[in-house]
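Problem 12. The chain below contains 615 residues. Write out its predicted structure in C-alpha cell notation.
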Amino acid sequence: MPGQIEDYAVVGDMHTLALVDRRGSVDWLCLPRFDSQSVFAALLGSEDDGRWLLAPTDARARTTRAYREGTLILDTEWETDEGRVRVTDFMPLDGGEPALVRTVTGISGAVQMHLDLTLRFDYGASIPWVRRMDNRLVAIAGPNMVVLDAPIRTEGRDFSTIADFTVGEGECLAFTLRWQPSHVDLDDARNADELLEQAESFWTDWVKTSTYDGDYPEAVKRSLLTLKALIYRPTGGIVAAGTTSLPEQIGGGRNWDYRYCWLRDSTFTLTALLAAGFEEEASAWREWLLRAIAGDASKLQIMYGVAGERRLSEYELPWLPGYEGSAPVRVGNAAVDQRQLDVYGEVLDALYVARASRLDVREAEGAPSMGDASWPLQVKLLEFLEGAWREPDEGLWEVRGGQQHFTHSKVMAWVAMDRAVRTLETFDRAGPIDRWRATRDQIKAEVMARGYDADRKTFVQSYGSTAVDASSLLFPLVGFVDSGSEAVAGTVQAIEQQLVTDGFVRRYDTGTGSDGLSGEEGTFLMCSFWLASNYLVVGRDAEARELFEKLLGLRNDVGLLAEEYDPKAKRQLGNVPQAFSHTALVNTAYVLQGRADGHISRHPEMLRAAKAKTR
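Solution.
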C-alpha cells in the first residue's frame, strides 16, 4: 500500500518529478515529462505497478529526513541496532536526459540494505524487457528505455530487480536510474558526485536570490523551491501539480489529472515569482502563455500541455485501483473542453502585472519572441469578451453539472476590462477606452444586482443562488470591491458560517449537488489562505496571522502541501505538490508582510503599487 499523501517528499529536475515516501520507496515517477506515462505507479495501486525501494532490511529502523538547505535534494537517515545509514535522493540538472540518483552512505556501523526495483511502463500496464549489459541493467518497452547503473550485483526475481547488500561506515554507493529513447545508443554513465554537486549549486544559487524578508523565510523559501520544481524548463509552463488522481475524498471519485498548465494559475504564480524577485521565471512563463493562447480568441482554453498542447483527452486506467481504492484513475482532463470565462480575466490580469513589472521579453532559443504581439492579442481577447461575458459557463471550480452564471466568472470579466482600461491609462497602448470603461461599469452593476445578496450582505455563488462560494474571497484582492465595504465583511462572515470547518475553508457546499458530482471533498487550502488575506483586509490582523500559521502547520515534515485537507481525519488530500497551495502561501506571506510594514499589500495590487512604471 502507498503511504499517506503527506508521507511523500518530492525531487525533480524541471522536466518531471518523483515522489519518495518515508520508507524509502519511490512510488511515482513519469518519464521523460510530468505528463508522460509513469514508470512507477505504486502511488495509485501496489508495488506491482512499479516502485523503487531502497532502505534497511530492518523494518524497525527509525527514520528522519530533510531537504538540504535551499535545495530539492532529500536526505533520509535510518538508525538500526547495527548502525546508521543515509539515502540521498535527487534528480540531476546537467542538461542530460532525466535521471533519478540515489546514493547510500554509511554513517556508522554496518547496515543491511535492500533494493527492490520494479519497472512498469504505461502506468503499470507494461512489463519491460530487461537485460544486463556489462555492469548495467537496460529495460525497454516500446519507445522508452530505462538504464540502471549500480555499484553492486543485482538479480531478477518475479519481474523485479532485487539486491541485498551491506553498507559500512564511510562507504558510499551510488545508484542512477536514467531514461532515454529506446532507439538511440546507450549514453555513458554519469558521475554521481559531480551531478550532486551541480544540483546543490543550482538550487542554492537560485533560491538565495529571493527578495522575501518577512517573518516566514523557511516556509516561503520551500514553497518557492516547490514552484520552481513545477516549471517545465524547456518552455516555462507551470504544471498545477505533479500527480494525477490523488483523491479529494478517500474512496471517492473526485480524482483528476493535474499535470497540465492552467491559465488561472497565472496571476497567482506570476505574482508569487515576481514578488520574490524571480523575473526570469516570470518572463519565461509569460512567453509560454502568449505562445499557448495565440490564435482565435474564442478558442481560448483553460489549460494546455507543458509545451502548449491543446488536446488533453481524458480517459481512465481500469487496471489501477486508485489511491486507497479511490477510483477511477484518470489521465488527461475533460475540463479542457469546458467554457470558463474567468480565464480571460486571469490572463489579462497576469499580462498587466507583467507589463507593470517591466518584464523583459525572453528570447527562447530557436523560437520567436511573442512580445510584439502581446497587446494586439490582448485586444482580440477583450473584443471577444465584450460579447461573451453575458453567457453562462462552468466556472473556476470546473463543475460537471451544467453551465451557470457564476459570480466569480463575471467579476473576472470585470477584471479583464479594468486591466485594459488601466493599460490605456498608464502605458503607451491604443484601444477603445470609453467602450471598455462602459463595459466594466455594466458588468459591475449587473454583479451587484444579481450576484450579491443585499439583505445578507454577501456575494453568492451564481445568479439566483443562495449558496456562498469561497471564490468571493478574491473580490477585494483583485480590486472589485473596496476593503472597507460591508460586502467584504458580510461575505467573510457568510463563508465563516457556511464553509468553514475547524478554521479551514471549503470551496462551496458539495451537498447541493450543483457540481454534478457525487461524494464530498476536503477543505481547500488555497481558499483558506484567501480567508487569511481577507482577515487582513477587514482589519482582523491577529486572526489572519493565526490562520496563516495554522495552515503552515499542515505542511508535511519537509514543507509540502497537497490541494486539500481533511480536518476530521487530519490528512492531506488531492494532488501533490499543489502549485495553488504554495502560491497562496507565498502571496499571503507577502500580504502579512505588507501589513507589518504599515500598509495592506493586496494580491495583486501590492505588486503593481511597488513596481508599476510607465514603459
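Discussion. The radius of gyration is 25 Å. Students who got a different answer should revisit the alignment rule from Section 12.3.
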